[in-house]
């Protein structure tokens, strides 16, 4: 994903707005762009913050255990291996409905958890289970919108 700046002039007045765009390949292998989120007018400083956030996305650690590319919807990992998977700029947490407060507290109070870069930099987002439970195309688009809003708000 990247930040796209669009400029135009109407009735002699210049306008600038921003949007988040993703790139994909069509059936013939050509690169195409897809709008992810309209951001509207941003200051230069806000735009730069969003750019930095987006540049940090997509950097996953090499997974030699196969957990990420296992094809499974859920893979259990130990707290000791968490830094291998969560050595990232941002963390989004969505606890299952049956997760107890004690289980959440055990994770969030763990010394290992507190060493993660996203935790140290206050870049952890708790997601509502009922909002992120569904994974049909329409739900995923709405969820992507909500996450984009979180990232933009956090960048300001």
From TrEMBL:
<dbReference type="Pfam" id="PF01497">
    <property type="entry name" value="Peripla_BP_2"/>
</dbReference>
<dbReference type="GO" id="GO:0030288">
    <property type="term" value="C:outer membrane-bounded periplasmic space"/>
</dbReference>
<keyword id="KW-0732">Signal</keyword>
<dbReference type="InterPro" id="IPR051313">
    <property type="entry name" value="Bact_iron-sidero_bind"/>
</dbReference>
<protein>
    <submittedName>
        <fullName>ABC transporter substrate-binding protein</fullName>
    </submittedName>
</protein>
<dbReference type="InterPro" id="IPR002491">
    <property type="entry name" value="ABC_transptr_periplasmic_BD"/>
</dbReference>
<dbReference type="GO" id="GO:1901678">
    <property type="term" value="P:iron coordination entity transport"/>
</dbReference>
<feature type="domain" description="Fe/B12 periplasmic-binding">
    <location>
        <begin position="67"/>
        <end position="128"/>
    </location>
</feature>
<comment type="similarity">
    <text>Belongs to the bacterial solute-binding protein 8 family.</text>
</comment>
<keyword id="KW-0813">Transport</keyword>
């Amino acid at each position: 994903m990247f930040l796209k700046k669009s400029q135009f002039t109407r009735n002699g007045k210049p306008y600038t707005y921003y949007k988040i765009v993703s790139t994909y390949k069509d059936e013939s292998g050509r690169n195409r762009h897809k709008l992810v989120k309209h951001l509207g007018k941003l200051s230069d400083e806000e735009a730069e913050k969003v750019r930095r956030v987006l540049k940090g996305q997509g950097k996953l650690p090499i997974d030699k255990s196969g957990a990420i590319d296992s094809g499974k919807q859920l893979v259990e990992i130990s707290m000791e291996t968490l830094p291998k998977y969560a050595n990232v700029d941002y963390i989004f947490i969505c606890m299952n409905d049956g997760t107890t407060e004690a289980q959440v507290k055990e994770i969030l109070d763990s010394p290992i958890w507190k060493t993660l870069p996203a935790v140290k930099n206050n870049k952890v987002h708790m997601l509502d289970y009922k909002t992120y439970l569904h994974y049909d195309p329409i739900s995923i688009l709405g969820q992507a919108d909500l996450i984009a809003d979180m990232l933009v708000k956090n960048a300001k």
